User: Which sequence fits this backbone?
């Protein structure tokens, strides 16, 4: 039997290694940016074309490479930061050169130009699919320029798995932002198809945040700092009032390396408990400095996931630091126990004073107490007979349906529940109508979402969304990632009925909105659509058109608490039952429930 185990050629081994490190254009940019940082660059320029599929070029002003280093950086297992096994557990740098360059060169056409300070000439190396095509002296600027062309040109299957330019560009922007945040003392620039997307100067972390995400972040930054024997924390958290419905700008850095850690994210969110609405997410950029011996960075090939040897302690410190930050900026109520050493005595004295007061006029008499107990027993006996599983589990305190009284009505206003009255509104939340089998309860919010969803979905499929022009068009400022997303979906957004056009590098001019939307804030509607779209995208796997239709329906639909006229209620009911799927809202929530007569009769037996 012939031997079946053999060594792989270096070129094939490099391609396999590239599969772990180089997953998309953004992976290449991450590696090249980190290399440039460790080379001591004070300015880094990134140039991309066709979302990095055609060209990625990173130019830095850092320490250049010698001719030998330039050639060695393209070899497998080449590194500048590991010389012995102990170094694996004491890594603080990203790597001067090496590590990923061999993997990148295995799946692309790479040109390196590099020159050391004080040298007359630098070096130029051209590599295609791990094969060195040229190596020669060259005249170039001090520093290093690495040009990556036609990524995955020799691995068509990998190239076919790349997403649209908008999606890939968003990943590139994400990686760019992470490295730029981690190094505010370095200047960065990003050019997409010869257009400047970012240009940020060296400065403080707060200035870097505002430069990357927009001027509106200037008002929401609250500094956060904590120093302990185990870790040191510094950075900023966003004020609770600026929390968003999507997981947007949330960044953790450990020893200046971006990481993803749900456990630490929970610590931050927990610190905001009671300050932001459920379903909203705070902004934060937090840096943790820790001895590398207490972490393991080699959990994932991209090193975005790490392990702490004492996660609970780190969790507690992070949560405490964020709570202290919010408290010091007067976002949370705080008791200053050091303000008065006699606080305990004063509280005791206050309790004694209360004992002396006469509150008998507010006390319940024996007869009243007995009546209350009898009423409680009555409800206890009925508990379980009726549940909101039948009215989808109605709770004890909702067992009685209360209809309006003429005493509470102004003259001329129709009486809710009056004989002959076919439809009425309950608690400004439900529409109640008499049907042949009993009573029908319609959730006005869920029902309207269903109606709008099917309408917007039809507009997208037929590209027939009508628009209403704005008298005063509004400008919406977006971050580069959201701007790329909007430009990618421009046709679908216009099919919904929006009239938009690019206005500057990151701004969009909203000149019209879909017909029948009553809101006056066109910019707010448009921003809400994008935020809801991103939220759905993060939580659901649905086609883009369905996501857009659901997002706009959610943001423009009727909410509870809105009073409706008889005509509006009747129109809502008619439109609901004209839908293809009237039973459920787009998120699966029931739109109506019928309480039949037999169940109603059981309430009286």
Assistant:
């Amino acid at each position: 039997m012939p031997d079946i185990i053999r060594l792989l050629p270096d070129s094939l081994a490099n391609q396999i290694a590239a599969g772990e490190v180089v997953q998309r254009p953004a992976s290449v940019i991450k590696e090249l940016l980190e290399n440039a940082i460790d080379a001591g660059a004070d300015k880094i320029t990134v140039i991309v074309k066709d979302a990095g599929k055609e060209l990625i070029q990173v130019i830095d002003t850092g320490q250049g490479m010698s001719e030998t280093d330039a050639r060695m950086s393209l070899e497998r297992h080449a590194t500048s930061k590991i010389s012995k096994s102990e170094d694996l557990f004491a890594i603080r740098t990203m790597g001067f050169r090496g590590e990923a360059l061999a993997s990148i060169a295995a799946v692309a056409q790479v040109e390196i130009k590099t020159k050391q300070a004080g040298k007359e000439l630098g070096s130029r190396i051209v590599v295609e699919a791990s094969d060195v095509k040229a190596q020669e002296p060259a005249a170039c600027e001090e520093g290093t320029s690495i040009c990556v062309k036609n990524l995955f040109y020799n691995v068509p299957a990998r190239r076919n798995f790349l997403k649209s330019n908008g999606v890939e560009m968003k990943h590139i922007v994400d990686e760019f932002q992470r490295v730029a945040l981690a190094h505010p003392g370095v200047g960065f620039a990003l050019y997409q198809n010869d257009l400047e997307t970012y240009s940020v100067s060296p400065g403080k972390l707060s200035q870097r945040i505002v430069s990357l995400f927009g001027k509106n972040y200037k008002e929401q930054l609250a500094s956060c700092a904590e120093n302990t024997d185990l870790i040191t924390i510094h950075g900023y958290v966003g004020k609770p009032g600026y929390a968003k419905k999507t997981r947007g700008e949330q960044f953790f850095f450990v020893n200046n390396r971006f990481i993803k850690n749900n456990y630490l994210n929970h610590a931050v969110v927990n610190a905001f408990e009671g300050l932001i609405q459920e379903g909203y997410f705070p902004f934060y950029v937090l840096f943790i400095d820790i001895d590398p011996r207490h972490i393991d960075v080699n959990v994932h090939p991209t090193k975005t996931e790490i392990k702490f040897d004492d996660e609970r302690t780190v969790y507690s410190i992070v949560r405490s630091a964020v709570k202290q930050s919010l408290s010091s900026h007067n976002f949370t109520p705080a008791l200053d126990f050091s303000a008065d050493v006699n606080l305990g005595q004063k509280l005791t004295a206050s309790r004694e004073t209360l004992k002396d007061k006469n509150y008998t006029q507010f006390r319940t008499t024996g007869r009243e107490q007995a009546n209350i107990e009898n009423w409680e027993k009555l409800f206890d006996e009925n508990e379980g007979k009726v549940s909101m599983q039948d009215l989808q589990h109605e709770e004890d305190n909702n067992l009685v349906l209360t209809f309006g009284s003429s005493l509470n009505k102004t003259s001329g206003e129709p009486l809710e529940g009056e004989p002959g009255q076919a439809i009425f509104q309950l608690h400004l939340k439900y529409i109640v109508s008499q049907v042949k089998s009993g009573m029908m309860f319609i959730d006005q919010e869920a029902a309207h979402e269903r109606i709008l969803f099917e309408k917007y979905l039809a507009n997208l499929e037929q590209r027939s969304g009508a628009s209403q022009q704005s008298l005063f068009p509004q400008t919406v400022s977006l971050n580069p990632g959201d701007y790329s997303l909007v430009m990618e979906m421009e046709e679908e957004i216009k099919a919904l009925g929006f009239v938009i056009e690019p206005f500057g590098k990151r701004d969009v001019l909203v000149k019209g909105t879909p017909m029948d939307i009553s809101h006056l804030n066109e910019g707010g509607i448009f921003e809400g659509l994008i935020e809801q779209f991103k939220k759905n995208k993060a939580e659901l796997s649905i086609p883009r058109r369905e996501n857009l239709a659901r997002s706009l329906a959610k943001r423009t639909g009727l909410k509870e608490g809105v009073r409706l006229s008889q005509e509006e209620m009747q129109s809502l009911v008619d439109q609901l039952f004209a839908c293809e799927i009237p039973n459920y809202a787009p998120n699966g929530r029931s739109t109506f429930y019928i309480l039949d007569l037999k169940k109603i009769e059981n309430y009286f037996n």
